[in-house]
Amino acid sequence: MPLFKTPVEILAQGHDLVLRGDFVQARERFSEASTKFTKQRDMMGANLASVYAAVMAVGQGISNPQAYRTASQSLLTLGPYMFKVGLREVPAQQLALELDLLAAELEVTSMAPSDPQQFGEKAKALQELAMRFRAQLAGQVLVIPELFTKTVVVGEAKAAPLMAQAEEAIGESLILQDPKAAAEHYQSARLWWIQAGRLDQADAASTHMKEYGRAAKCWFCGREVSGEGIHFVAMPSELTDLVKQRGQGSALPTFDAATNSVYACKGCYGAVFQLADAIAVKRTGELEAKVQKQIDEIKSQISQIKGRIG
Ligand SMILES: [Zn+2]
C-alpha cells in the first residue's frame, strides 16, 4: 500500500466527505487534490478539483453572493461535464446557472431602496429574476439547497416569493402619490405569498393593504385622505359621547372610538407636533434657568459658610 495518496484518491475522499455532509473537510480535500494534480502537471485534474472546492465554499458562505458567483464561473470552465454532488450528478452548466440565479436572488432581495424610483427599480429586478427562475430552472430540484440545507426546492417555486416582493416594492413606490393603488399591489402581494405558502408574510401584506387602503377625514381641517400611517395618523384624544354622536353620519371616519383617537392628516399632525415640540423646548429652557438660579444661590451660601468657618 503506497504511503502517499494519489490526487485521484484524495478527490475520492472529498466525495465521501460530501456524502457524509462534512463540507468543510471535503473542501480541504478538494483543494489538496488540486495542488497534487498541479504538481503532476495534470491541469485538467487540478481545475476539476478546484471547481469542487469552489462549490463546497458556497456551503460556508451560504448568504454571500460572491461565493456563488465564484463557483458559477469556475463551473463554466468545465464545459459539458456531469458534476458530482453527493448522490446526484448534474450538468456543470446547469449548476452554474443555478448558482448564478441564487446569487442574483441574494443581491436583489437585499436591495434597500430609499425613494420611489429605487423601489420601482427593485420591483423590476425582482420580476425579471422570477421570470428567469420560471423559464430556466422550472421542474428542476435545485442542487444547492438540497445539498447544504437539506431542503427540496424546485426552480419555479422561487418565483412566487420574488413576485410577492416585487408587488410590495411597487406598492412602496406608489404610496406617496396614490395610497389606494399601493393597497391594490399589497393585495396582489398577499396572493403571491399565499401561493408561496408563506402565511406570515401574507398576513403582513394584508395589514399594509388595509392601512394603505383606509381613508379618513381629518378631525382638524376636514380634508379627506387615504393611507393610514403615511398620509394620516390616529392621535390619542378624549372623546365624549356627544362628540362621538356628532361624528356619525359622515361617510369617512374622523375618529376611532375604540382607541379614543382622532384622525389627523399629516399636515395638521405635523403642525401640532411642531408646536408641542416648541413648547416643550421653551419649558425646558425655563426650567433650566430656574434650576441654575437655585444652584448659584446654594453655591454662594456654601462659600459664605466656608468664609465664616475659615
Ligand atoms: Zn388636517
Average pLDDT confidence is 93
Number of strands: 7
Helical residue percent band: 55-70%
Structural class: mainly alpha
Uncertain stretches: none
Shape field = flat
Which ligands are bound?
zinc ion
Question: What is the compact description of this entry?
Answer:
The protein is mainly α.
Question: Mind explaining what this structure looks like?
Answer:
Helix content is 66%, strand content 8%. The radius of gyration is 32 Å and the shape is flat. The chain contains twelve helices and seven strands. With 310 residues, it is mainly alpha-helical. The chain has helices at residues 7-19, 23-39, 43-60, 65-76, 92-109, 116-137, 143-149, 159-174, 179-195, 199-213, 241-247, 266-309; strands at 82-85, 88-91, 215-217, 224-226, 232-236, 255-256, 261-265. The strands form three sheets. The protein has a three-stranded antiparallel sheet. The protein has a two-stranded antiparallel ribbon with strand order 1-2. Strands 3-4 form a two-stranded antiparallel ribbon. It folds into three domains: 1-91, no CATH class; 111-213, no CATH class; 215-310, no CATH class.
